[in-house]
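Subgroup meeting minutes
Present: P.N., E.W., G.H.
Scribe: E.W.

1. P.N. recapped why we're keeping a running log of single-chain structure predictions: easier to compare across weeks, and new members can see raw inputs and outputs side by side.
2. G.H. added today's entry (277 aa).
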Amino acid sequence: MSLDEIPHDIPTSARVYGWYLGGKDNYEVDRQFAMANLPAFPEALDITRANRLFLYRVVRHLVQEAGIRQFIDMGCGLPTGNNVHEVAQRFAPDARVVYVDIDPIVLIHARALLAGNGSTTVIPADMRDQDGVLDHEDTRRLIDFDEPLAVLFLSVGHHLPDADDPQRVLRTILDRAAPGSRLAFSQVVTENTARGADLQARMTAAGIPWQTRSRAEVDALFTGLTPVAPGLVDVDDWRPDPSQPPLEPAPVELETFLGASKLNRDFREYGGVLAPA
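Output recorded in log:
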């Protein structure tokens, strides 16, 4: 599929997320969707950007402290600065990364970015189809299940409604992985049930699978796994590092929403790193 063939009459979470991070690969429909919903959920910009900073710290931890050299990034989204392979290979040049996404625009841009990088690939697969991910020839080429690996579900947990059996999706690869493997996870949470239901309704109406959860509901997905310190927390509080590389500036149109999460903490990005018990 070429860029000209990509449907651009409905928004996608990957393109909206990328725009929040200062990316350029989006359409008017994505920007309109964001601007229509941000007044009701102004925290979304901050928590999206906090999640991207969390990604850097998580991958650095997994390489430097857990000794992991292979990664599967589920629902990876559009390439921006400090992608998983860039962070991992900065600290371990031999690190290998398989990106997984179903959005065709993600696949096109990721393939262009990764051209010539033999230790990193992107595969077209739905993260709900874990057997499809495992059976893909590029996964089999790059991932050795006799060695520890990390599977990342970063800011995609809310795209796994209960009807999709999220515990199965989240655990399939980890249950088959070698000792020392890790699972990294984050998703939007709230304890305000009314606002959570409103957000969920808006997303599903736009064709974006979504389930807002409380912290306790997220915790329940990981029964039998052990969170790595400091546990499952607001991602801002997961090993904060003021000296880590900054993000690209937010688009000018979004600047008025920066800092909203400090005024209203209903919605947060919640996550951490987990290990088999």
